[in-house]
Amino acid sequence: MTQAEIKLCSLLLQEHFGEIVEKIxxxxxxxxxxxxxxxxxxxxxxxxxxxxxLCVLIQHNLVSYQVHKRGVVEYEAxxxxxxxxxxxxxxxxxxxxxxxxxxELIVEELLLNGKLTMSAVVKKVADRxxxxxxxGKTMDYAEVSNTFVRLADTHFVQRCPSVPTTENSDPGPxxxxxxxxxxxxxMYLVPKLSLIGKGKRRRSSDEDAxxxxxxxxxxxxxxxxxxxxxxxxxxxxxLDRFHQHFRDxxxxxxxxxxxDQTSSEIVRTMLRMSEITTSSSAPFTQPLSSNExxxxxxxxxNISKQVLDQYLTLLADDPLEFVGxxxxxxxxxxxxxxxxxLASLATATLESVxxxxxxxxxxxxxxxxxxxxxxxxxxxxDFAMIxxxxxxxxLYKMLSENFMSLQVxxx
Amino acid sequence: xAGNKGRGRAAYTxxxxxxxxxxxxxxxxxxxxxxxLFPDTDYKPVPLKTGEGEEYMLALKQELRETMKRxxxxxxxxxxxxxxxxxxxxxxxVYKEEWIPDWRRLPREMMPRNKCKxxxxxxxxxxxxxxxxxxxxxxxxxxxxxxxxxxxxxEKSDEENEDKEGSKEKSKEGDDDDDDDxxxxxEYDEEEQEEENDYINSYFEDxxxxxxxxxxxxxxxxx
Lengths: 411, 223
Prior knowledge:
The structure holds 2 protein chains of 2 kinds.
Chain A: H1 3-17, H2 19-31, E1 34-35, H3 36-43, H4 47-59, E2 63-67, E3 73-77, H5 79-83, H6 88-113, E4 116-117, H7 118-132, H8 141-153, E5 157-159, H9 212-216, H10 220-225, E6 234-237, H11 239-258, H12 261-273, E7 288-289, H13 290-296, H14 305-317, E8 323-327, E9 333-336, H15 338-358, H16 360-372, H17 377-384, H18 388-400
Antiparallel strand pairs in A: 1-3, 2-3, 4-6, 5-6, 7-9, 8-9
Helix pairs in contact in A: 1-2, 2-4, 6-7, 6-8, 7-8, 11-12, 15-16
Chain B: H1 52-70, H2 87-92, H3 124-131, H4 138-152, H5 156-170, H6 178-196
């Protein structure tokens, strides 16, 4: 991790969790995997506080642990996951656009708390929604549950790995740390709960001021009455799925800018059909036949089959190669070239940065060098049609800001 | 050798044309001062992207910042003890919900070891010596030794009972009992309270009411 990234992680942790957690977290990011005692010793923090900090970090999926030989447990921080905290508002806003306020609050609660059981989420969200409703109205748990199930079905929330249920016949001593496992097919399986109830409005008498014992056990007033039905089944927000959504959005808007609204709708339909069937790191989607695409177009769109075919051909022939044709069965099999699409978008972003910073002539040189990979000084002047002195000046400016680098070749 | 051409005359050791100046052209002036700290830029940055979505996300971020500070995950740094404890400080504290992690999902060493200044039903001490993961702080060790000495006098039977409870709690099967939860909360509470006041709990004698509630009162012998 670069120094700038570590500094950013430090600021994020400090802002969200306080200085103690920040100290432990940054130490782990810098030094890698370490056991508990070493962390306490190296950071000069008391063992007690280190434990609290690690509990918080593990709860929020920022630190993971592993049992090494001789029973030593080592903790490791995930720096890239810490940086994702910058995107929390974007994740929440995206859910709002897709699943409205209920979905938004579900994801917000999951991000704020790291992991939660479904019953806990439903209760919190129902309470929060009830707060905002008019007097006398309450939010039903069933509605929140339904939204939760929809989020799970589209993979925006997923189950955390859980403690394996061991039989009691385990003879040896319990391991120093549980190894959490998750079955691939269980990851989005919603437990059958019958959550009945309505959100509660928070009244001042219920609050802590009245009696400390009551407030100290907000969780247990309900626990004492009935056991939690989905105890041990925790859910977290599935960040990769959000990233996949952002990627799809970027591709669709690029197509809309380059071509027209209808083409972008077609591409959006294709992406939606491949959401769950294609893994997020695949280079291209599963092939989709033109017939399938026609059937899956959104209801409001009434374009004829021939028009759809024409659009698909246009998209496939476009030099940007966002869409490719992989076969002729079913009216033509089409794929979306995800990696190529992302590479073109990245290139376009880079060129735009150079243009805004150094001017369009520098951008021309930059595009040239990007295309041809290696160019000599003289070749740059010739291809870009820029006088020698200016070309040298621009090249040097880009070199000094690390947009270009020199490579010495043999003459 | 070629460099010796004009003896005494200034000559370059490399081909000046390679740098871009044709022969005989006036070279740029020698720069006598460092470049300006903030040079003028020809190209100003593009304005920030704004729109309904961005405004909403900005508001969300501000809210999240505030909310996180109030959550139990935000661990405050303990303040330095001041000379005079202000009466009003106690009442201006923002109260936070307690958070108990699910101990089943965490390594066993994560559980806080109870210092047991007040009555605590869990005798971690007996197990501590064995496991060797107890506190390294010498001051704590001395305190513990002191308290163990005081307790040794009459309370052996209590310790046995608590050993059983402790092992039950360590087995981590199924749901935690209410007792365990309450005791764990007490642990956290104690640690918080330790930092709050200057009074050492063991010296505090309330008379009749104190300690009469719990059976597992491991408080010091009354004098």
